[in-house]
Design brief:
By secondary structure, the protein is an all-alpha fold.
């Protein structure tokens, strides 16, 4: 399913290769019969913006949206298990699912990274794709609302995935929940995280910087990562921002 590859690229860190892949991205969106016209139009506006925009601006925007705090994390199991041991087992199970379907592991990334997960789904039958998306629709709904309230284009990707899942969400309820959440990407919130990490570092004589907290989690993800290489790739990397809500 080429559309899932487009959505995966859009969610990855922006690169020059993305800007050179505009025609392939647009063609895949236009050819897919499952996405409604309004969602397609929003997604195409984002692709246009990405391919014509300043790369450094897009990269700065991406980091601000996804690399500060956990609320908009693209690691699925972080929203379900946090830093508990259950997350490790869930990742092992997902990796086994990938391997069982003959995918090669040849680079670095955690298996619950959403763009990677979407690439995997792009190789599966439609019924299986829909079942997987249905299983994570609650995560997609919250992510989409958080991104929408932060005025980020990326909410369009989550909205499109929800449409493909076949599940509806209560937008008003999601808006209420997210509006009541304390932002974790503010300077004050980020400073607090760093302070907590420093305390753990001192208390555990250095061990916590690699075993706990947001900072430790990110280091762990870099040190223990695996990824899946898909042989029939549509294009390289991608990313966008602002658009209206479906």
């Amino acid at each position: 399913m080429q559309l899932l590859k487009v959505l995966a690229r859009v969610l990855e860190y922006p690169t020059e290769e993305l800007q050179a892949s505009k025609d392939a991205l647009v063609a895949a969106v236009l050819e897919d019969p499952r996405l409604p016209r309004q969602n397609k139009e929003q997604l195409l506006r984002g692709v246009e913006w990405v391919c014509a925009g300043d790369l450094l601006d897009m990269q700065e925007n991406y980091v601000a949206i996804f690399d500060k705090g956990r609320a908009t994390s693209l690691w699925l199991f972080e929203h379900v298990h946090g830093e508990s041991r259950d997350r490790g087992q869930a990742m092992v199970d997902l990796m086994e699912q990938y391997r069982a379907n003959g995918l090669e592991i040849d680079a670095k990334e955690l298996p619950d990274y959403l763009p990677l997960f979407l690439e995997y789904l792009s190789t599966r039958p439609w019924d299986e794709i829909r079942n997987w998306l249905e299983d994570i629709h609650h995560i997609l709904g919250l992510l989409g609302e958080r991104l929408y309230q932060r005025e980020s284009f990326y909410h369009v990707v989550m909205d499109s995935l929800l449409v493909l899942s076949g599940r509806t969400v209560n937008r008003q309820e999601l808006a209420r929940i997210v509006a009541a959440e304390e932002r974790d990407d503010t300077p004050e919130a980020l400073d607090k995280v760093w302070e907590e990490e420093m305390v753990k570092f001192v208390d555990d004589q250095g061990s916590s910087c690699s075993t706990g907290g947001v900072v430790g989690q990110r280091r762990r993800e870099l040190e223990q990562t695996q990824t899946i290489h898909l042989s029939d790739q549509l294009m390289t990397d991608a990313t966008p921002r602002q658009a209206g809500r479906a």
